[in-house]
Amino acid sequence: MARKGRRRERRLLRNALRGGAAGVIGGVAIALVEREVLSRVTGGARHRSKWDDVAADGLSRIGLDLGDRGRIATGLASQIAYAGLLGAAYAVLRDETRESRAGRILLDGAMTYAASLVFPDRPTPARRGRRLALRRKMAQPVNPAAAFSRVTAMTLGALAR
What we know:
Elements: H1 2-41, H2 50-60, H3 68-96, H4 101-118, H5 132-139, H6 144-160
């Protein structure tokens, strides 16, 4: 009986570690695409996210005031840490729901919702001009939370092989 419990604990730990790694990879990928690529494609050179302000405001409540670069670093670090935790939880719950199609669908929806809390921004064009309509059209279908969910699930699948 104790042997079976140890096996289950090892499997849960292994899944959590794989999921955490997949979440960090997905978080880094989405953060870089959101902050660097999409911000440039949509016409601006914006590196800050609204999440940066949320994370930095939390630190300022305990007495740590950060400059502009510190706000960006805090936001990025907290996004990646949250992505790792979310990936670990996703991997463990995915293993538990592998027999239930409805459970997997519900889990994927919950993952996208949870990711939308930390990857909330949709890129918006910063400049005006003739290409504004094209930039809006390019940025409109982008959903960073859904992309994070897909990247993390694909990475987790690749790590499980």
